[in-house]
Amino acid sequence: MGTLLSKIRLTFETLRQLAASYNELDKKLSLSPGLPLPNPLTPFWASPPSPLARHGAEECLPTSADVVIIGSGIAGTSFAREFLDKLHLTGKERTVVMLEARDVCSGATARNGGHITPQLYHAYQALEKDVGVETAKRIIRFRRAHLQALSRVAEEEGLLEYSQCREVDTYDAFFELSVFESMKLKLEYFLKAMPEENGLWEVLEGPEALCDLQLCDRVCGAIKTNGGAIHPYRLVTGILSRLLKSYPSFKLYTHTPCTNIECSAGFYTVVTTRGTITAKHIVHASNAWTSHLVKPMRRKIVPLRGHMTAQRPGTGLGHVLTRDNTSHSTATQGSSWLGTRSFVFYHSTNEDQWDYLTQQPQTPSSSFGKTPHAEFMFGAGVAAELGGSAFFDAIGCVDDRTMHFPTQAYLGGALATYFGEHWGGESTEDERDSQFEAGRVKKAWSGILGVSADMMPWVGKLPSKISGRPTFKDHAEWIVAGFTGEGMTHAWISGKALASMILGREEEEKLSTWFPEVYRATEKRWKRTKLEDRI
Q: What is the pLDDT of residues 228-254, one digit of tens each?
């Protein structure tokens, strides 16, 4: 009886603590995210930093501009490139100023895993239910298009080698049979709905099919398709460097945080810690920090802290495996798969809990910057259970100067468990690695994601109800943000779409045929979107 009473007391105490935590969370999500914090952890991608890292930090600000872009990540860069290049083709010129609170590209773009692996079959049925069949298909095609779009941009910019943009085989690996069976049914439904995807997917099950993956014996199946990998920091800073050289009308000012936006006489005034700029248009491309300047977007786009690592691969990994008559795996002397694969690990019975892994090239031909050594780029996806300590630590958190210690510890040990006996020994430190930590984990860092309350990006002109400020006939505020951790498969083409909107080229660019209208930032969408529906 005493044991039973103790359990009851423990249950009520747990519920009380949960209620208190949710109340605290509710208050936190209604607050401003503030400005990006100084001295964040340095991500692997920014080692060494770009020559643009502090570009314009000591220069005087202009007093006016046609367009001010707030944020220097992939979304803001995509917009700037499309806007400036399209204007150049018409012989027109507009002054464009990009402002960044810290070093260039120091937000989520430089802190992700560099994997271009969209959610496709996984999300299709839910999308059908939420937005209808045709819109669901358009969203899938929009996501899928990012692999070719980013490859094409990298090639056009002469950055294909420098940015390491490449196609890889990507595997969803399942360690619980119930989840694997559920995902196979989702894939089957998806392929019937979108026959153009047939031939792009392969289901792997059974020892013979799975042995090549070198995963532990717990793996019960995998689903394979093509994906991509990229060095996101190099891509963005490389493009910005070209824009600065090509267009004198384009200016970049780092370490220039925006503190307020005022408006009068049909113009906007961007207030920064270093002065003010009068602008006709403002583009909000600050993702998790959007609601600092756009107060009505609080609880519509909320910050969430994620974690990433760069790790040395185990010495047993890489060579293709064969299986002998005794059912033991043996490494052949064939080509290595290192640098050619990415993974999503579904490690529990919850389909929404996963980790992700991509990899640097193994034998780079580039002499640009730091030479990669086939590092594993390993991050925790939605690994925290709702209501757990990691969940309450992550959501609403804007501190990328630190990491959640239990998550950091988990990431440091999980890979050897996923690969099991195939992991082998630990890689030895290379003399070229002196700037990194010794041991398995070379670098660990955190980053702040901008999570959309309806799980879709916000793109387009901001109505007054959303911006909290007047919208004028020819001048306005715009947004491209809220990528919910899927920026590499949403942000680039969203930025291009926004440029077409501001330039008045929607019909010419046929946006209605490829841009998901549900992504538009409309007052109707803003009113119906409630964070409470997701928590």
A: 999 999 999 999 999 999 999 999 999
